[in-house]
UniProtKB/TrEMBL annotation:
Protein name stated in the entry: Ribonuclease P protein subunit Rpp21
Keywords per UniProt: Cytoplasm, Endonuclease, Hydrolase, Metal-binding, Nuclease, tRNA processing, Zinc
Name of one Pfam family that matches: Rpr2
GO biological process, one term: tRNA 5'-leader removal
GO molecular function (one): ribonuclease P activity
Top-level taxonomic group: Archaea
EC number(s) stated in the UniProt entry for this protein: 3.1.26.5
Coiled-coil positions: none
One of the record's GO cellular component terms: ribonuclease P complex
Species whose genome carries this gene: Methanothrix thermoacetophila (strain DSM 6194 / JCM 14653 / NBRC 101360 / PT) (Methanosaeta thermophila)
InterPro entries: RNP4, Rpr2/Snm1/Rpp21
């Protein structure tokens, strides 16, 4: 599963559509194995459209110790605490 996220990241610039596919696969496998994506993984995809969030497709802001990530494709905003 981690390997798939690595692949998604590696393909983000050259083949964005492949990245989405890898994310989809990784999530599917995770569900089957009942493994939850790690914080790092969660940061890499949009919960709403399940697309891979490459630096070009997201907007990240840090506010009061909270990381705000906005997906540029569907506009979904996710927040997570930042250490
Ligand atoms: Zn999205």
């Amino acid at each position: 599963m981690e390997r798939l996220f690595e692949l998604a990241r590696a393909n983000a610039e050259t083949h964005p559509e492949r990245s989405d596919r890898y994310v989809e696969l990784a999530l599917k496998i995770g569900m089957r194995l009942r493994v939850r994506p790690t914080r790092e993984m969660k940061r890499m995809f949009c919960k709403s459209c399940r697309g891979f969030l490459s630096p070009a497709q997201r907007m990240v802001r840090l506010r009061d110790g909270v990381l705000v990530i906005r997906c540029m494709r569907c506009g979904h905003i996710s927040r997570m605490r930042y250490r």
